[in-house]
Fold this sequence. Notes:
The protein is 37% helix and 17% strand.
Amino acid sequence: MNAKYFFIAPYLLFLRSYFIPTKTCVGSDAHIESMKIAVDIMGGDFAPAAIVEGVAMAASELPENITLVLVGRQSVIDALLPQYTSKPLPSIEIVHAEDVIEMGEHPTKALSQKPNSSIGVGFKLLKEKKVDAFCSAGNTGAMHVGALFSIKAIEGVMRPCIAGFVPQLGGGYAVMLDIGANADCKPEMLAQFGEIGSVYAQATFGIDKPRVALMNIGSEEQKGSLIAQAAYQLLKESRRINFVGNMEGGDMFADKADVIVTDGFTGNTMFKLGESIYSLAKKRGISDEFIDKTNYESVGGSPIVGVNGNVIIAHGISSAIAIKNMIGLAIRQVESDAYSKIAHMLS
């Protein structure tokens, strides 16, 4: 599932050093006195070196109230950190985790057999509220299952989903969900994606009434599969959202919606297609500001929306720059407090 994060648009601003443009730069609702972000050091195709390097890049620019908690084999971390830092960083803590869940392992079996893995320990810290967010570029399935088993879904959420961010030609960004967690969706699930996506967009982008659209094969109300037609009616009847109707694939970048609702199969497929466009442009020597925003490194991760906590899943091939930006995303996620606002909406 590595390819599904490429369209996570650079919408988050983590301090000035990240240089990620935003549609709206929104501050936190209240001052956060301290924050701890846990990072899985052992997960990812280029772990642990790329992860430690990215952490070091981020840690050197962190304000005093933010601490990075590195989860993994302490001997490995201790050996790598001096290679990327010239002096000890007070903003870093280490929590030892002996085991590693490999990328190809079965998520549920691996989590049950390896409770002392970096992913298992990371979720334990999050569940016990010893950290404010947990990030990993490791096994995507294990991250999703781990979130459901530890911090669990918000009460009332049918199925948590993964959100991605799509650049818009007008300069803004739209949140798209689901992009891979739920390949098969009932109409009620799609309608709820619209509702929790709307709250997420409000919290993250500061949009008063986010425009919610349903991805479909035509703009007319009667178009699409039976599931799409039923979802349309549920979205249309919902008083919680500003539903603007169907959206065709050709309008995905046209600034016609702030929230794009789709099943995980369709969303993931569209993201992978977009990644191929970016790769093709790069191979042909084409440099374009808009296309460059589709580079997965721009933010480096994607949130699981609908769980009781802040969980970021990063691209499996994450570079050090991607990891640095993943940490920026996690910080912004904590500041927005989106999951608490979703829980309040559903209560």
